[in-house]
TrEMBL record:
Record keyword NADP present: no
Name of the protein in question: ABC transporter ATP-binding protein
Gene3D superfamilies recorded: P-loop containing nucleotide triphosphate hydrolases
Span of domain ABC transporter: 5-230
InterPro entries referenced in this protein's UniProt entry, alphabetically: AAA+_ATPase (IPR003593), ABC_transporter-like_ATP-bd (IPR003439), ABC_Transporter_VariousFunc (IPR051782), P-loop_NTPase (IPR027417)
Cell inner membrane found in the keyword field: no
CDD domains: ABC_DR_subfamily_A
Lineage start: Bacteria, Bacillati, Actinomycetota, Actinomycetes, Kitasatosporales
Alphabetical list of SUPFAM superfamilies matching this protein: P-loop containing nucleoside triphosphate hydrolases
PANTHER family hit by this protein: ABC TRANSPORTER ATP-BINDING PROTEIN ALBC-RELATED
Keyword set, alphabetical order: ATP-binding, Nucleotide-binding, Transport
């Protein structure tokens, strides 16, 4: 597996606040990666470290074979769209494309102009008069037209309506299909990630809780319902993530290498949203049980 991003013990601290802790992960090339987690989990911090916008206070990170933002050549390998899809309201779309061409040595003029044409946008129109979805599409065009090997998107569809989100994601996937760009997409909208992502990273309380291919993760997580019993009585090899009990029944959310069967069980696979929420809850519970000293 070729890694396009590799972090080892990566951390970022702002004063007394630890924004990211001991982050060790590998992002395979050629994937569309969903990055999930609650607010304050460290998602934006990780993405800004990957872009070279900020520097780590501990550990190391390597992106596309080098240190983030080490030089002009390294900068050209990474495209970035922030949550507010930054554009210049007083400039036209054509001005943005001209600026992109001047700043990026790998700029693909045909790709940029073709995307704007396919979107039905007038290059002479000022960006400040576009809708939120149209501004997001312009920002995406600027990012992909530099032909990056890694495209990083930090919640770019958070403020868009459902139709604009779908159009943005459709445009993204068309680009990925044509050019094979690796994408890391941060979002709270798991339903959007489920449509486009084949790899998942979950951050909770500034730490990596879960990482892997979506198909592998979904196929190894189950909801197990049975007559009331203790978690300790389940077969070895089952990791219990959550347990709820009624007077006569127990329900466990478990991770297991294979779907073990028992006539007394009802065993159902978890969908991606249930899986993500389960790990978020587990991470928050683990953080809440730490001593105050451990959380400082």
């Amino acid at each position: 597996m070729t890694a396009i991003l590799e972090a080892i013990g990566l951390g970022k601290r702002y004063g007394r606040r630890q924004a990211l802790s001991d982050c060790t992960l590998t992002v395979p090339a050629g994937r569309v990666v969903g990055l999930v987690g609650p607010n304050g989990a460290g998602k934006s911090t990780l993405l800004q470290l990957a872009c070279g916008l900020i520097a780590p206070t501990s550990g190391t990170i390597e992106v596309v074979g080098g240190r983030p933002a080490a030089d002009a050549a390294q900068l050209a390998k990474v495209g970035f769209v922030a949550q507010d899809t930054p554009t210049y309201t007083g400039l036209s779309i054509a001005d943005h494309l001209h600026l992109g061409a001047r700043l990026n040595p790998t700029w693909d003029k045909g790709l940029a102009e073709g995307r704007i044409r396919d979107l039905g946008l007038d290059p002479a129109q000022r960006v400040g008069r576009l809708s939120g979805g149209q501004r997001a599409q312009v920002a995406l065009t600027l990012a992909v037209a530099k032909r990056p090997e890694l495209l990083i998107l930090d919640e770019p569809v958070a403020a868009l309506d459902p139709l604009a989100r779908r159009e943005f994601l459709q445009g993204l996937m068309e680009h990925v299909a044509e050019h094979g760009t690796t994408v890391i997409l941060s979002s709270h909208l798991v339903s959007d990630l489920e449509r486009v992502c084949d790899h998942l990273i979950s951050l909770v309380a500034s730490r990596v809780q879960l990482a892997g291919d979506v198909d592998d993760l979904v196929s190894t997580h189950f909801r197990l319902t049975t007559a009331r019993r203790d978690a300790e009585s389940l077969p070895k090899g089952m990791r219990v993530l959550q347990a709820t009990h009624t007077e006569r029944q127990s329900t466990f959310l478990v991770r297991a290498g294979t779907a073990l069967h028992d006539p007394a069980w009802v065993l159902e696979p978890l969908d991606l949203e249930d899986l993500v929420l389960t790990y978020m809850a587990e991470g928050r519970t683990a953080t809440a049980t730490k001593t105050p000293e451990a959380q400082r």
